Amino acid sequence: MDNASIAITLVLISAFMHATWNAVVRAGSSRFMTLAMVDGTALLICLAALPLVNVPNLEVWVYVLISVMLNTVYRLFLIKAYETGDFGQVYPVMRGVPPVLVALFSYVLLHEQLSFPSMTGVLLICAGIISLAFVRGMTAQMFKPILMAVCAGVFIASYTVVDAKGVRASETVLQYIIYLTVFQSIPIPLLAFFKARSALIQAVRGHWRVGAMGGVFYVSSYGLVLFALSLDAVARVSALRETSVIIGAIIAALFFRERFGWRRMLSAFVIVCGIVLIKVST
């Protein structure tokens, strides 16, 4: 199996895990506290793994710190989006924005060239994801969560490009994953502790298992996609990861009782077509 095939496999597994931990955050009675538990679990896992890797050099630290800032802002938008919107509509929008932006960023900053089939695949995936978000008519009430999701998507695209450069500057992929996760997992639990200490303690006591599962899936999901970034073009990896939207639509229908319908199935088919184009052009 070549590097591109390995990258595709890893990203599809990552997509499943990503949709699942997002569903965990959305399902929580307090999205802020649930995300704090997810990040807290990730922090503990990666602190235990620190002895496995060397301390990064200065260049890698720059990428880590920039990514931490971008990830923190993304998390705040994610919380606001899930507090006010449906999972089946917010999640596709949030994941639909990054692929096109990453393709543009990777072309300008990383000088990566996309073939016509690959670019067509990226655009099909984006079209399918965006169409999933708008299967129902827009209302004034839905404007805020959609806006929050779009903002979250912009920051996802930004930190994806930064992380791609950080991984390539690191001694190993594992080094970057561990140090990045340690530092980006601190701000939200810290904010939760100082904002509502008693609520955080109560959330941990009552729902620590769910938070722990979300944290394990979060670490695994991001670790897999970062490793894939070191094997294949950033835009292709980012686009394939957005197939998590298909899983998200299924989760929305089964667990949140949101409508799936033929339009969403058609959108899923369009996304699959995009995956095939990317696969055959690799």
From TrEMBL:
It comes from Pseudomonas rhodesiae. Signal peptide: none annotated. Its main location: membrane. It is found in: Cell membrane. This is Uncharacterized membrane protein. It comes from the Bacteria. Residues 6-132, 145-278 form the EamA domain. It holds the Pfam family EamA. Keywords: Cell inner membrane, Cell membrane, Lipid A biosynthesis, Lipid biosynthesis, Lipid metabolism, Lipopolysaccharide biosynthesis, Membrane, Transmembrane, Transmembrane helix. GO terms for molecular function: transmembrane transporter activity. One of its GO terms (biological process) is lipid A biosynthetic process. One of its GO terms (cellular component) is plasma membrane. The chain crosses the membrane at residues 6-25, 32-54, 60-78, 90-110, 116-135, 142-161, 173-194, 206-231, 237-256. The keyword Lipid metabolism applies. It is a multi-pass membrane protein.
